[in-house]
Design goal:
about 450 residues; 17 strands; ten-stranded mixed β-sheet; three-stranded antiparallel β-sheet; Outer Surface Protein A, domain 3; TIM Barrel; disordered C terminus
Length: about 450
């Protein structure tokens, strides 16, 4: 479910923050906030789904208490608050006084920093917020953004507060501001050893450790460390379907790190799953931008145990190599013609109605959860769905996809419209010509 950004204001300046384009100081005139009417529309749109309140720092919204009460009054079974814990006093008092029936529905993710990065007044505010939260529904989150990284403060904080759930992230860049980001070639293997030690110590302390985005690929763990991590499956990271962020005004993106290149505007007449599908399809177009050169032959990638590493790191690496890279060729005719179309659905049945007319029954890719579809297709489209000529570009498929009855002047246009419609139905993706030979399973 999407993260609902109540405001872009923040009262911290974290060294690893990737909300570069949108985050502002809470005293800045450029602060944006959702109003109650728009927030009510968000809740109605979500229905009975989980509500996730995000920022900036969401508790800095002047109407935060009213918005929280609106969320608690909705049909949502869970309200997740993602916060740095530096709450205004009124927010802390309100949460501390919540009725038990509401407190058990309020899950709080406290994203904390090393103690040295807080002023005294901030330390006191964080301690007070942690004391006001329900330790059974709270999680302490933290970001590993340098090496060496000393995580002992997190274990000590968990012991002091009684919070038993931890969540770590590996710092990832914003592609428009990659300065200071962790270097995968230099840092990933030492950080993998750090995570293995963390997982073991957390387990021995009775803490549940989970992994968030900016993940470490499996290949950076030694065989022995990878075997040890099998005992802590939730601590292994996999950037498969990160949530969509929605800001006031309806701008939506998936992953702050990709904000500069991948965002859209919410169509409130469509369910949240449609928005997820839009981003799923476009993120899939990034799968042939590998993080490491040997990803092309990696068994973990082939078996879908790893998707190749953080998308923001992969895009940043590619744009350093070639700033003119077209990341989403489906939106550009000439770029799309150069791509190889790859069928990613499931061909259930093909029924020939006439020499050039077929009824095709297909199942979109599993992750969409959509039912089977029936399509009318010509012989060329059937050959494409059967992947009878892999490696050919859309341009090379044009004569067959357009069909024998399409005017020569319209063939390219007809073929492009067809492959885009299959893309929008989650049946087709596109691979850049010459970028990797891996076949999807």
């Amino acid at each position: 479910m999407p993260n609902l950004i109540l405001t872009n204001a923040c009262n911290l300046s974290c060294p690893f923050c990737f909300a570069t384009e949108s985050r502002v100081d809470s005293r800045c005139s450029a602060v944006s906030r959702v109003d109650r009417t728009e927030f009510g529309r968000w809740l109605k749109w979500l229905g009975t789904d989980r509500v996730k309140l995000c920022g900036g720092e969401p508790t800095l919204h002047p109407d935060f208490i009213e918005l929280l009460e609106m969320a608690l009054a909705s049909g949502s079974p869970e309200i997740l608050l993602m916060t740095n814990g530096l709450w205004p006093d009124a927010v802390r008092r309100h949460i501390a006084r919540l009725a038990p029936r509401h407190l058990v529905r309020l899950t709080i993710l406290f994203n904390v920093l090393e103690p040295a990065r807080y002023r005294q007044v901030q330390e006191r505010r964080l301690a007070a917020a942690l004391a006001a939260a329900n330790p059974y529904t709270a999680t302490i989150g933290f970001t590993i953004y340098k090496r060496p990284f000393d995580y002992r403060y997190v274990l000590e904080l968990a012991k002091r507060t009684g919070i038993r759930h931890l969540r770590y992230s590996i710092a990832a860049p914003n592609i428009s501001d990659p300065a200071g980001a962790i270097d995968p070639e230099r840092d990933f293997r030492p950080l993998a050893r750090t995570v293995v030690r963390l997982a073991g110590q957390a387990h021995r302390a009775g803490l549940a450790l989970g992994g968030d985005c900016g993940y470490l690929p499996r290949c950076v763990y030694s065989p022995g460390d990878l075997a040890r991590m099998q005992a802590y499956p939730r601590a292994m990271q996999q950037c498969h379907r990160s949530p969509v962020d929605i800001a006031p005004g309806g701008t939506a993106w998936r992953c702050y790190g990709l904000y500069a290149v991948l965002r859209t505007t919410v169509d409130w007449s469509q369910p949240p799953s449609q928005l997820d599908g839009y981003f799923d399809r476009r993120v899939r177009l990034l799968e042939d931008l590998f993080l490491f050169e040997d990803c092309r032959e990696c068994v973990y990638l082939e078996e879908r145990q790893c998707l190749g590493g953080c998308y923001a790191l992969r895009v940043a690496r590619q744009l350093r190599r070639d700033p003119a890279t077209c990341l989403f060729p489906v939106d550009d005719d000439e770029q799309l013609l150069r791509c190889e179309p790859v069928f990613i659905g499931h061909l259930v049945g093909v029924f020939q109605l006439a020499p050039q007319k077929f009824r095709v029954v297909v199942q979109p890719e599993r992750t969409t959860g959509r039912a089977r579809l029936e399509l009318m297709a010509n012989a060329g489209t059937v050959r494409l769905l059967r992947q009878e000529a892999p490696g050919r570009t859309v341009r090379e498929w044009v004569p067959e996809l357009a069909g024998p009855f399409t005017a020569a002047s319209n063939r390219t246009r007809a073929a492009l419209a067809l492959v885009r419609s299959l893309f929008d139905k989650d049946l087709l993706t596109f691979r850049r010509r010459g970028r990797g030979s891996r076949r999807r399973r």
